Amino acid sequence: MLGTAAAEGPSGRRGRWDVLRVAVGATVAVVAVGGLVVKAAHGGQTVQDLRSRTPVADAELDDVYYRCLDVQARSVVAPGRPVLIEGPDFGAYVTLLKAVGSWVTIAGHPSPSDVALSIDQRGGGGSCLGSVVVARQRGPDGRRTTLVGSGASVPGKGPPPPPPL
Amino acid sequence: MTLVPGAILALVVLAAAGLLPVVALVGLRWATVPLCPLGGAVMAAVAATCCLGIGASTMTWFVLAGASAALATLAWWWWRPDRRPWRAPAAGPAPHRTTGLAAVVGIGGACAWCLRTLSTPTVGFDTRAVWLMRAGWFLQPHHQLVTDMSSPGIFLSQTSYPPLVSAAGSVAWSVTGNHSMRLGVVVIALLNTCALAAAAFAVVECGRHATTRLAASTSSGRGAPASPGGRRRAGALVVLPSVVAVVGAVALVFVTFAVAEPFMTNGYADPLWSLAAVGAVAYGLQAEAGNGALGAAAVLVVVAGMSKDEGAVTAVLLLALLVVRRLLAAGPDRRRLWWRPVVAGSVGLAFVGAWPATVHLLHLRHVSAGGSPASQYVHRAHQAIDGLAPYLHVVVLAGTLAVVGWLFLTPVRRAVGMGNDAWGWAGSAAGSAVILAAYVTGTADVPSWLTTTAHRVTEFTALSGWWIIALWAVTASAAPALAGAATLSRPRPTPVAG
């Protein structure tokens, strides 16, 4: 009978341990890389889906809507004039803030001379999907004036589909 | 200026501002390229903070911050010529250069392919309402910025979020003269992708370090195989971790787009803080703790901390972990230099804390409206875990691999120089705990809150799970080469008659 002295000692156990470690290592590597590749394929599909017609159309409508509100607001607010952004509700307030918040001069402590900017719902031509920007302000003679935004319009009704939150 | 030239110019300006300090911290390596624009974005965030807290304009402070950082770097290199990056040993052996180039082509190509989603002109809800609205504010002078931030007419508490994303958009608008939402979104998407590329390169570097260590162990002494065939096979096994790392890093680019979905390219700040934090964990806690890796971790942790509130709290916890790991890893000869990681951590903390401290000191927007009563914590925690769990299935796979790896592959991980896996899990747990704590202690109704946020706020935990998986793939692929080296270096058994 031929045997090895080391095979029965620590060296042999280490050899078996190495074989086990290689086998486990190969399994872990295959499972890990496999998981990554499967999820990566999902990522590739996600990229394709985001480029499909529906998200593009929704995004373009969203962009046109906010650009329309922006143009209308610029038509009723003089540069540098302090502005109060108002409703009539929280949704309209946020919509207006999204459209003009980056460039208007926000009023610090509200005063009667500030321009109050809001959105009104009005059908027909000249609106942005049924919304128009309205500026209400008090003139030097104390009379209140209301200006309706102009210069851009988007036909249709209702806000654009909401973007993902 | 039109969109594409504008985006390129904005990225070049940000990269130029960040170039010298990032090179000083990270050295000359491929990951430095995507880190430079992120360094510039940090400058922009510092500039916005100074504009708010001190005066003048954000762009004035941006130029000052960029010039000061560049001069300080040049002075450092003049004072310590041994720290000049071009004095560092170059690239390494040919296989390293090959895998390095493969990683650049693979990661760069994958990022470019995935960025095709920018052809859909989506501008996210928060992008208009918070991130790019404030980009416009940061273009206004100090007194108007303070008014914007404190006006009782602005009801959105999110306007007090950290400034990095908005400030980078502000710089882009300023240097191009193009104040469109679209340009802002593209620049934010490019910064997200820079953070992604930098984090992916961390995996590549782990693979290269593993290969270097394996090459050293197989080529030294009795470990070297004698026959040409044996040498070829041993050489192939040694390179395996580098190859697996490149494959894993490229896959991680696609995985990130699968996890983040539209938020990667619609101007949200969540991918930026999440990816920067994942990169900081990878370089600072999971990889071999060299100076360059720690420099990359430092840049990324500051980016995470200056991007969003949850990123800021996570960054503070990650800074603590980075300092503790550095202290524990110091040998007896370096223990007396314990103050170095503490000072470095404090500098990072100063960057992350500058904005919230300024907002607090100026009594600007108050975010806190009290918390939920402690009696509701358990119920809210249950609701939050139920709502977040569907986005975190990857944790099961990562956890399983980690347990198996811990049982069988710990010596391999140690031999190839990677950090203990527990560090990576500690980093991931830190970010996850921050998110969970927000839901538990917040006042909003948890189910409706989850509906609009769960996808985005789980990005860090999910992505760190995928990075853990990729690093176990690299570790596991080193097992055959290590076993071969061990077998070859072992005394050959003597046949005996029995």
Key words describing this protein structure:
heterodimer, A: 165 residues, alpha/beta, 46% helix, B: 498 residues, 20 helices, 74% helix
Number of strands of chain B: 1
Main sheet record of chain A: 5 strands, mixed
**Coarse structural class of chain A:** alpha/beta
Residue fraction in strands of chain A: 15-25%
Number of helices of chain A: 3
If you compute it from the alpha carbons, what radius of gyration of chain A comes out, rounded to the nearest whole angstrom? Answer: 32 Å
In which range does the helix fraction of chain B lie? over 70%
Succession of helices and strands of chain A: EHHEHEEEE
Radius of gyration of chain B: 24 Å
Shape of chain B: globular
Considering residues with a beta carbon less than 8 A from a beta carbon on another chain, report the largest interface and each chain's count.
A-B, 68 and 87 residues
Order of helices and strands of chain B: HHHHHHHHHHHHHHHHHHHHE
How many structural domains are formed by the residues of chain A?
Answer: 2
Describe the structure.
- The complex is a heterodimer of chains A (165) and B (498).
- Chain A is an alpha/beta fold and 165 residues long.
- Chain A folds into 2 domains: 51 residues; 95 residues, no CATH class.
- Chain A is 46% helix and 18% strand.
- Chain A contains 3 helices and 6 strands.
- In chain A, α2 packs across α3.
- Chain A starts with a strand and ends in a 17-residue tail after the last strand.
- Chain B is mainly alpha-helical and 498 residues long.
- Chain B has a domain of 333 residues.
- Chain B contains 20 helices and 1 strand.
- In chain B, α1 packs across α7.
- Chains A and B meet through β1, α1, α2, α3 and β3 of A and α5, α6, α9, α15 and α18 of B.
- β1 of chain A pairs antiparallel with β1 of chain B, so a sheet runs across the interface.
